[in-house]
Specification:
The chain has a two-stranded antiparallel sheet with strand order 1-2. Strands 3-4 form a two-stranded antiparallel ribbon. By secondary structure, the chain is α+β, with helices and mostly antiparallel strands. The chain has three helices and four strands, in the order ββαββαα. InterPro entries: Doc_partner (IPR013432), SpoVT-AbrB_dom (IPR007159), SpoVT-AbrB_sf (IPR037914).
């Protein structure tokens, strides 16, 4: 599925309005939380937030912040 979406100014921010087709594909509804993450190829991925994944993401973020310099050196 490829959808062309338009960025719109919402207050002092810029927002993206998802059409019904995209919401149905994500199995998401208004007011739910979604996650925007970077894929291994640099692409961006939009997924619905799953409660069982949130603690894991918080732990990973904490590790990445703590060992930022080490991870940067390993990435060379």
């Amino acid at each position: 599925m490829v959808l062309e979406l338009k960025l719109r100014k919402i207050g002092n921010s810029v927002g993206l309005v998802l059409p019904k087709e995209a919401l149905a594909h994500l199995k998401a509804e208004e007011g739910e939380t979604v996650l925007l993450s970077e894929g291994p190829d640099g692409s961006l991925r939009l997924n619905t937030a799953r409660p069982d994944v949130s603690p894991q993401m918080k732990a990973a973020q904490s590790i990445m912040e703590r060992y930022r310099n080490t991870l940067r050196e390993l990435a060379k």
